[in-house]
Amino acid sequence: RYSSTLMNLQNIINQKEAELSNIRADIERQSSEYKILLDVKTRLEKEITTYRILLEGDDGRSHSSQSSSTVSKDKVTVTSPNVITKVRTIVQEEINGQIISKKEYDGSPDQLSFY
Hints:
Layout: H1 2-55, E1 67-79, E2 83-95, E3 98-106
Antiparallel strand pairs: 1-2, 2-3
């Protein structure tokens, strides 16, 4: 009589331990995904700040009223356990609508000194 009750309780314990193990694995997976997303968010915020600075006047540098700079970028994202972003920056100088120079750089605009 007691041995069957003991076996039933042991089965319940084993089931709960298996559930607990599954929950722990799920928490670890979610934590890893959260860290990846947080890293992507941080990088995007930095990139947005860089572009905001560029849009507000090339980081405070002055230009003549006839000159302008255009910055564009091509981005290739490969998703796997880690996100890899490659940035190519193109700086184009224009006077009166005519392109007078065009330079291409590997890297993000915040790594460049334009003048």
